[in-house]
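pasting for the record
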Amino acid sequence: TFSGLSISVPIGGTTVIVKAKLTAIGERTTATNATAGTGADTGDALAFALSTVTDEFHAVGGSGTVDPAADAAASNSYQVIKSIPTFAVASLPSTVLSSNNTVIFKFTVTAGANEDVTLARVTPYITFSDSDGQNELQMTANTLEVFDMAAASTALNTANNALTSTTGAFGINFTTSTALPTIGKGTTKTFEVRATFAGVESNDQVTVKFIQATGALATAATTVGTGAQATTGETTEALSRFIWSDNGADTDAFTSTEWMNSYLIPNWDTKSLSVSKS
């Protein structure tokens, strides 16, 4: 209850901002999601609404008429998180499309100041542009890899892509056999996506971008990290292209609600990068 307010509302309305501070995120006393305890878990829901009970809202019009009950005004639902990643496209070291181990995309991830951010999956959307339309331009099987530039010689994933010339999304899981890449709170890491190509000819081009999800995961991404795609615990492949954690829930297992996708991440960088053969 807020009392003693004196908010003047002109014709056309006004905006009132309500803020709340959450404490002890991810510091539950019980290691079970959505249970009572100290603080909030990542993934807990939060919403704001005005009470419509009589006399719990009070407004007086210019004529002196009193409105004692608010309309059913409610906010969007919010999801509690402890930290958030910032995804940005970086410049390629070269724009030349070669056959072997070509860097086809480069990006950075910056973790918020409150907590580390951990990645479990990224998904480059790769467009093949074969100059003569004969589909000789192909990505070689088992060569699509992601590298943390802090250890640029060791891939973060086990490449399992098929030989292909088909444009589409290519999910890359950072499996449990390799340590999941973690970006320390308040810091930035740089990553490269590399692949080898066959049938490269003059004027061929490969273009890559990362697409932001248009909806949230329905449940925790339980199969992330195991090499599976869009199966138990996930909704659709399109919603599970960028999976990350703020390390803020009771458990870090892939069944935890701390695993999220790119939906609603602010300032998502939509730029594409291209490499081509002159």
